[in-house]
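Support request from a user on the community tier.

User writes: "When I paste my structure tokens into the form, the page sometimes reloads and wipes my input. The last time it worked, I copied everything first. Here is what I submitted, just in case something in the input itself triggers the reload:"
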């Protein structure tokens, strides 16, 4: 598929996409799953075989029609205006969505209404307390970028603690949280071209994210249950 999407699939061990995929694949078969901010539909197709019904919501008009392949229902709308659904879902995924909203609590309220009792919400959020941001602030810099933690379209910023509070205050019980590895190879493409260098760099990124998640975690992936 020829993609012009802004936020591309990260096939990197320890990335948010990798963790979300593993969380979903660990769940029972026959899921009703809603993928909010589905982008090019990559995550949905990775877990299609786990789903009895797969729905996607994506507002970006640049995403090609082929992105919908594998989805039972696709709505070209933003998450807040996606409308209601005929039946509740077992799982709702909001990957890199909440930070783009002025009022994420409003969407989380809708998500609760879309979920079955005890349904699961999977969320990924960037870590504003990441070492790269802390180091920049130390030298007086806070520069927005085209993507990443300081993406210029982000309206909200979260630490692990504040993200947990957001979910808990919105009626969810956090069951698990994992820090994602720093994507060094995206910042330094030369690393991706050398398998000899890439493997140890990926290993270090995952190790540091586990050892000190609030410092070296690039994003946090939350598994939260509707209460």
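"...and here is what came back when it finally went through:"
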């Amino acid at each position: 598929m020829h993609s012009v999407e802004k936020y591309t699939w990260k096939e990197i061990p320890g990335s948010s996409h990798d963790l979300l995929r593993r969380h979903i694949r660990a769940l029972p078969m026959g899921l009703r799953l809603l993928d909010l901010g589905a982008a090019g539909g990559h995550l949905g197709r990775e877990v299609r075989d786990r789903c009895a019904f797969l729905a996607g919501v994506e507002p970006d008009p640049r995403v090609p029609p082929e992105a919908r392949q594998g989805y039972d229902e696709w709505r070209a709308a933003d998450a807040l205006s996606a409308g209601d659904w005929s039946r509740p879902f077992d799982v709702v995924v909001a990957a890199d969505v909440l930070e783009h909203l002025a009022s994420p609590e409003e969407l989380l309220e809708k998500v609760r209404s879309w979920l079955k009792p005890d349904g699961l919400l999977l969320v990924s959020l960037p870590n504003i307390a990441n070492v790269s941001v802390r180091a920049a602030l130390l030298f007086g810099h806070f520069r927005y970028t085209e993507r990443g933690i300081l993406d210029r379209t982000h309206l909200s910023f979260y630490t692990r603690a504040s993200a947990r509070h957001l979910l808990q205050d919105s009626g969810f019980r956090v069951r698990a949280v994992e820090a994602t590895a720093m994507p060094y190879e995206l910042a330094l493409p030369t690393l991706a071209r050398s398998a000899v260098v890439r493997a140890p760099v990926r290993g270090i990124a995952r190790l540091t994210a586990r050892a000190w998640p609030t410092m070296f975690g690039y994003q946090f992936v939350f598994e939260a249950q509707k209460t």
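Agent notes: The reload is a front-end session timeout and is unrelated to the input. The chain has one domain: 16-182+214-226. The first strand starts at residue 31 and ends at 36. Escalated to web team.
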